[in-house]
Structure to design on (653 residues):
């Protein structure tokens, strides 16, 4: 079991980086607790695979150190670290059976046959692979193959962390649920640290205790799924998490109101105060889930034009235009059909202000 | 879409058909024709059925040439396949060094085959050849025109020098196609360099190695120009391979009947061995779904 520390880690793939944009991974200073389930979430190219490879040792960072339980392992090769990695597509030894695949890491480390057999049977049981042990690994389905990849990590008793690089990418959708559940089960049983890289927020939010959102090489926010949803600390997190993402309205402050092209939206005192203290351009953020849309005027509501309504099954997404700004809101089931006009209500507790893309908060 | 009744598309195939007919099918049928008839002169031909086949298959000189040929092809495959793979493993993976090494490796393949024979004759001459003179000055009598063993050694050197690059190039392409993740996983699993080679690289090269094996077998089994220029089939008939013997029979002795009969047998032997190799290679480590 290990506490993983990233001490001022940064990485550039170019030999002599000149400025920030040459870095694939900007300054990362982070501690990963023992036994946690973490998700590294972000769009393609944000540096999450780079970060994962630095932790596993497949990549040596150009700056900074990696520590396991306080010990500097930055220059230690992968096989000497207590980690295992599951890749995006199933990586197997095609000529071997499932048993031999699972036994391989132990064989390379010189364990004797009895111990190997015992351990492989244990892991096969955990992963429901016992019936396939004597089959050629190449014959199995994609999800079984990924389980074998996971098994090769679990089979080593010295493993402290398992890293996953978008492992469900090639799995059929109806099997993804099963495999995800299996991963969570294994995590609870084994108490290892699981670090899971994905660009799919549903995967990240259902799998992890803590989600680390990355954008353009930097960690933008770390928090529980709820924290990320309710208080996104960066504009990007608001936009990326949630389907559809957070609405943003450029505004200026006038007393207790946020003015959007002449339309006033009331803020509570605390939020308004934060706005006063800030510098730079301000945006008002509110999640579609919390934005209320009414067919008739209600108190403190502002008028807007209805652009479209999409039926998503058990809820509808309504797109409206407020003084030229496009907003989206969720309509609960059974809401009446709207005419061209709608009235928007911005509940004060759910309004967030952003200055220069960062959440204004009392911290 | 309905099929057109009046399908003019067939006319587009006609030119190709004509060319293939004239360059391949008709000559082949001519050979078949010769193999079952005895031709004394223009207009004087007698149908002899399988007589030429019987004669050819009981010819001891032909049997000797056949065994020599199998020995030669066997040695060629045994040396060139592992050597080619080894070279491919050592070549750089990317950058300018990769391009340079690819070009250098490919150079022997570009030389006309009879020129290769000539190069090696001179190279191994005991009086003026770089290799020949050097070896002889060490006291070892080396003369490929006099000793059969020396002729074979020279021949093997020449053949390996000439054709191993093909195996190396094919193996190199096969190696580059393996996704990096396999090597990363192998590192994490603690696999040694040998284990990585044996369990990942070699199985994944199966396609290209099959091609290399079949190509090298067929070409070496048919070999003509290089040994002919180097040794003329000698000393004696120690390097008379099948094609050289066949040409002697057909052109030297003008025995078209037996030559044609043997050409067909020759063709069938190659086909059979290739089919055998192919089946074996496809089934080694069988189990892949795709």
């Amino acid at each position: 079991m290990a506490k993983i520390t990233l001490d001022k880690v940064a990485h550039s793939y170019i030999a002599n980086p000149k400025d920030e944009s040459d870095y694939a991974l900007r300054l990362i200073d982070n501690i990963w607790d023992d036994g946690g389930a973490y998700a590294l979430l972000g769009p393609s190219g944000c540096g999450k695979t780079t970060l994962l490879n630095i932790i596993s040792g497949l990549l040596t960072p150009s700056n900074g150190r990696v520590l396991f339980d306080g010990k500097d392992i930055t220059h230690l090769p992968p096989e000497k670290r207590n980690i295992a990695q599951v890749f995006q597509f199933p990586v197997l030894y095609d000529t071997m059976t499932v048993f031999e695949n699972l036994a391989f890491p132990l064989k390379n480390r010189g364990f004797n046959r009895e111990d190997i057999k015992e351990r492989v049977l244990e892991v096969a049981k955990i992963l429901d692979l016992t019936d396939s042990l004597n089959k050629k690994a190449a014959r199995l389905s994609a999800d079984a193959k990924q389980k074998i990849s996971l098994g090769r990590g679990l089979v080593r008793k010295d493993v402290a962390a398992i890293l996953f690089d978008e492992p469900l990418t090639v799995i059929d959708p109806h099997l993804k649920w099963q495999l995800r559940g299996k991963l969570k089960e294994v995590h609870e049983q084994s108490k290892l640290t699981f670090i899971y890289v994905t660009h799919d927020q549903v995967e990240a939010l259902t799998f992890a205790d803590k989600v680390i959102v990355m954008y353009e090489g930097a960690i933008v926010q770390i928090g529980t799924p709820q924290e990320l949803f309710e208080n996104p600390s960066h504009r990007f997190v608001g936009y990326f998490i949630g389907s559809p993402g957070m609405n943003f309205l450029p505004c200026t402050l006038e007393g207790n109101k946020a003015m959007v092209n002449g339309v006033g939206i009331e803020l509570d005192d605390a939020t308004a105060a934060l706005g006063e203290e800030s510098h730079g351009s301000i945006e008002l953020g509110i999640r579609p889930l919390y934005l209320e849309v009414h067919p008739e005027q209600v108190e403190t509501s502002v008028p807007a034009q209805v652009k479209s309504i999409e039926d998503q099954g058990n809820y509808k997404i309504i797109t409206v235009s407020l003084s030229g700004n496009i907003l989206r809101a969720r309509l609960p089931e059974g809401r009446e059909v709207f005419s061209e006009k709608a009235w928007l209500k911005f509940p004060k507790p759910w309004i967030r202000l952003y200055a220069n893309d960062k959440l204004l908060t009392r911290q | 879409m309905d099929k057109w009744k009046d399908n003019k598309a067939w006319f587009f195939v006609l030119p190709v058909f004509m060319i293939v007919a004239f360059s391949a099918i008709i000559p082949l049928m001519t050979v078949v024709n010769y193999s079952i008839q005895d031709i004394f002169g223009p207009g004087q031909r007698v149908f002899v059925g399988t007589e030429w086949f019987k004669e050819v298959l009981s010819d001891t000189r032909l049997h000797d040439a056949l065994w020599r040929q199998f020995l030669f092809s066997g040695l060629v495959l045994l040396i060139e396949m592992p050597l080619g793979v080894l070279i491919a493993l050592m070549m750089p993976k990317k950058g300018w060094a990769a391009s340079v090494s690819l070009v250098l490796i490919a150079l022997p393949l570009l030389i006309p085959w009879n020129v290769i024979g000539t190069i090696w004759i001179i190279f191994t001459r005991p009086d003026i050849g770089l290799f020949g003179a050097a070896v002889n000055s060490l006291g070892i009598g080396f003369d490929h025109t006099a000793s059969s063993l020396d002729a074979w050694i020279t021949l093997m050197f020449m053949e390996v020098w000439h054709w191993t690059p093909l195996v190396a190039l094919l193996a190199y392409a096969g190696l580059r196609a393996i996704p990096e993740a396999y090597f990363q996983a192998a590192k994490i699993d603690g696999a040694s360099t040998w284990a990585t080679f044996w369990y990942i690289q070699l199985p994944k090269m199966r396609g290209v190695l099959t091609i290399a094996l079949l190509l090298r077998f067929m070409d070496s089994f048919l070999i003509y120009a290089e040994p002919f220029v180097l040794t003329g089939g000698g000393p004696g008939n120690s390097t008379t391979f099948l094609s050289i013997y066949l040409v002697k029979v057909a052109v030297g002795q003008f025995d078209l009947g037996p030559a044609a009969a043997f050409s067909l047998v020759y063709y069938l032997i190659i086909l059979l061995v290739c089919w055998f190799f192919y089946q074996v290679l496809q089934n080694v480590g069988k189990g892949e779904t795709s």
Summary: The mean pLDDT of chain A is 87.
